[in-house]
Each structure stands twice: as structure tokens, then as C-alpha cells.
Amino acid sequence: MSVDIRIGIANSPRELSFESAQTSNDVEKIVAEALDGKATFLKLADDKGKIYIVPTASLSYVEVGSEESRRIGFVA
């Protein structure tokens, strides 16, 4: 299973978009802990092992998609 994540960054026209092997609940918990005022950055990993570190002061939004299994084969 994987979950789609999109992160908007202040003063930037682009957003970070990636898939993570973490569950949507895990991602929500990590984001909430980063935004509680104590952390200075948000750190998430994608399903290929890349790590994304974004300063919490620069976060505009974090969008967490629903969890779904990867589709294999052709769709009719």
C-alpha cells in the first residue's frame, strides 16, 4: 500500500509530490507533531527511500491522499 502526499511550500510556485509507504494515519501524526511548535522541520520518506525535509515555517499545506494498493496489469 502507498499514500500520495503533496506539500505546499510558502513563496514557491511548486509543490513536493510523492508516494509514501507510510499509512495516512502515520503521516498525519508526523505532520501534527511537526506543527505543534517544538519542531523546526517536517521529515517524511517516500516509498523509494528518499527523505524530504521541509522547515515548518515554510509549510503552506500538507495533503495526504487515501491509501490504496498499487494496481498491477491493465485496466479494462
Automatic annotation (TrEMBL):
It comes from Antiquaquibacter oligotrophicus. InterPro entries: DUF3107 (IPR021456). The lineage of its organism: Bacteria, Bacillati, Actinomycetota, Actinomycetes, Micrococcales. It comes from the Bacteria. This is DUF3107 domain-containing protein. It holds the Pfam family DUF3107.
